[in-house]
Design goal:
- The chain is built from 13 helices and 12 strands.
- It is α/β, with parallel strands linked by helices.
- The chain has a domain of 237 residues: NAD(P)-binding Rossmann-like Domain (Rossmann fold, 3-Layer(aba) Sandwich), CATH 3.40.50.720.
- It has a 7-stranded parallel sheet with strand order 3-2-1-4-5-6-10, sandwiched between helices.
- α9 packs across α11.
Length: 355
């Protein structure tokens, strides 16, 4: 079996669901169920003996050590992280605690477990750390995309904390020999995406008749990756990746934020039109940009294709249509995750932008 941390969050839950669609190998799922962790994402696995859910913190070394000793997983896939830039600007401490201190405690527990394995189990063990392209900083319009050797230049408390965790993982490989793998992905989108992020926020606000807040001029460029493609990339790296290596995972879909919003509006116009017949574009509202907003991210994903034979199955056009349809068909899920805490956060963040 494998141990997945953060497996009730957006990417983690998609990975767990996708794992069972491909394999019968059991998963121990450790998640602290903070605001973005949601067991409803995993409702399809209720009663499934292959899925063992444990609520807990990766920073609690005793909990991790107990799970490792009891279940003896052959691999750990670490999704657990605080991951929203705006939240990191308002409150960076949680990001330091989870992404840096938590990763350290997780690595220590895993190192102790791995050191005690017999030779065959020890050589087959893997620790896969899931990270982000934001650790590389910001690109100018005409600069080459991020490769795995690009210098780290994080610009937000979030990306700085993820960069630190990446460095810890690398250090544990080079110092202790821990068999690690690291992936740095571009912007994910798809089912179960918490509606504080751009694409689900636009869908949810549009359907509710609310403004569609676009930061600055909306020309910030990101590379967009459908979440199920990301899951297949992680499986490939876990199975075939070279120890100690970093693999960038991207969708080859560079899009400006405003273009993303226009695409979402056009799909909603087609699939769930406004009662008054007008376009959802009329709800777009430009708001004050976030501090230190990176202008462009782009992933060079040639290494993972060359070495492991992976490339995304979805184009942006196919992936975004599937995403919009999912939110239209799962509005109960949306209403359940929009707790009082979520509403307070959105109102605080975007009220300040409007001012």
């Amino acid at each position: 079996m494998i141990l997945v941390t953060g497996g009730a969050g957006f990417i983690g839950s998609n990975f767990v669901l996708d794992w069972f669609a491909q394999s019968d190998e059991a998963v121990i799922n450790l998640d602290n169920l903070t605001y973005a962790g949601n067991l409803e994402n995993l409702a399809a696995l209720k009663g499934d003996p292959r899925h063992i859910f444990v609520q807990g913190d990766i920073g609690d070394a005793s909990v991790v050590a107990k799970l490792l000793a009891e279940y003896r997983p052959r691999a750990v896939v670490n999704f657990a992280a605080e991951s929203h830039v705006d939240r990191s600007i308002h409150g960076p401490e949680d990001f330091i605690q989870t992404n840096i201190v938590g990763t350290f405690h997780l690595l220590e527990a895993v190192r102790a477990y791995w050191s005690g394995l017999v030779d065959a189990e020890k050589s087959g063990f893997r620790f896969l750390h899931v990270s982000t392209d934001e650790v590389y900083g910001s690109l100018a319009k005409d600069e080459p995309a991020f490769s795995e050797t690009h210098r780290y230049e994080p610009n937000s408390p979030y990306s700085a904390s993820k960069a630190a965790s990446d460095h810890l993982v690398r250090a544990y490989h080079h110092t202790y020999g821990l068999p690690v793998l690291t992936t740095n992905c571009s912007n994910n989108y798809g089912p179960y995406h918490f509606p504080e992020k751009l694409i689900p926020l636009m869908i949810v606000n549009a359907l509710a008749g609310k403004p569609l807040p676009v930061y600055g001029d909306g020309q910030q460029i990101r590379d967009w990756l459908y979440v199920k493609d990301h899951c297949s990339a992680i499986r490939s790296v876990l199975e075939k990746g070279r120890l100690g290596e970093v693999y960038n995972v991207g969708g080859w879909n560079e899009k400006a934020n405003l273009d993303i919003v226009h695409t979402v509006c056009a799909l909603l116009d087609e699939l769930s039109s406004r009662v008054d017949g007008k376009s959802y574009r009329e709800q777009i509202a430009f708001v004050t940009d976030r501090p230190g907003h990176d202008r462009r991210y782009a992933i060079d994903a040639r290494k993972i294709e060359r070495e492991l034979g992976w490339k995304p199955a979805e184009t942006f056009e196919t992936g975004i249509r599937k995403t919009v349809r999912w939110y239209l068909e799962n509005q109960d899920w949306v209403s359940h995750v929009q707790s009082g805490d979520y509403r307070n956060w959105v109102e605080k963040n975007y009220a300040e932008r409007a001012r």
